[in-house]
Specification:
The protein is an alpha/beta fold. The chain has eleven helices and eight strands. An eight-stranded parallel barrel has the order 1-2-3-4-5-6-7-8, surrounded by seven helices.
Length: 293
Amino acid sequence: MEKYRAASLFQPSNLAKALQDTMNPSPLPGNPTHLLATIVSIPHTISARTLAVLGYDLVMIDAQHTPIEAENLVRLIQTVNFSSEGKTIPICRVPSAQSDLLTYALDAGAGGIVFPHIDTPEEAAEAVKKCRYAYSNGDRSLAPAVLVPGVTDIAPHGSSHERVADDNVAVIVQIESPLAVENADAIAAVPGVNALMLGTGDLRVAMRCPPRQTGDPEDPKILDAIERLVEVSKRHQKPLAVVTCKVSGTSNTWLKDFQVLMITSDYLSVVRGHKEDLARMVKTLADVQGLKN
């Protein structure tokens, strides 16, 4: 992602261009075909700093399901930017387009914003508007004390940091209800929407699918929704994102049609690692006890 970074690490990397490049059927050398991501669910700079240097393309800071206040959100976003030196792009999932955290995430330099529960093109258009300055027909407010004039607000000749932000920040909308699936075509057609994200967990609940355990075959209704989103993605040339550990089945061939793969989270990795370490030690102790006997 280093090739997409802005002139200053205080500003957002060009995730909009990186997403667009994943849709190129004949990618240029160095351009991504997929973006690999992980999620910060443990809202501490140690977690953000660690994930930032592991080689992921994106780190999503989840401010929807994680208790994060504004100052910590700014720290987490900037920790990813600075620790990775622009090689990993921080994105943020906010509770809604009306959340005050959205302004702080943008001002901190997030390269993308994930908006949950976007059901209509009107809601998608509002999300885009909140992320753009009036130069791009948005209503984002200009922060007076975020960038240092002539130092961190640098921009290409003839441009400005406001225009850089308008060009670079990606708007990613989550499709996680039957209504959203029905409106996916219209949502994808909204100017400024850069990607669609399948919200598998909430979509499964909204469709009244039976509860499932990890590894269970996926419900046919979810697979039908995936097929529809893939068609929409190809028609509008808009990338698809998904949390891969939330979807399973007898085949993962559908993954080839998703460009942003959110592989895991710090929380899930901690759970998995601790369970494996505990089981390993229990077995070791049993083996040692067997030798004693």
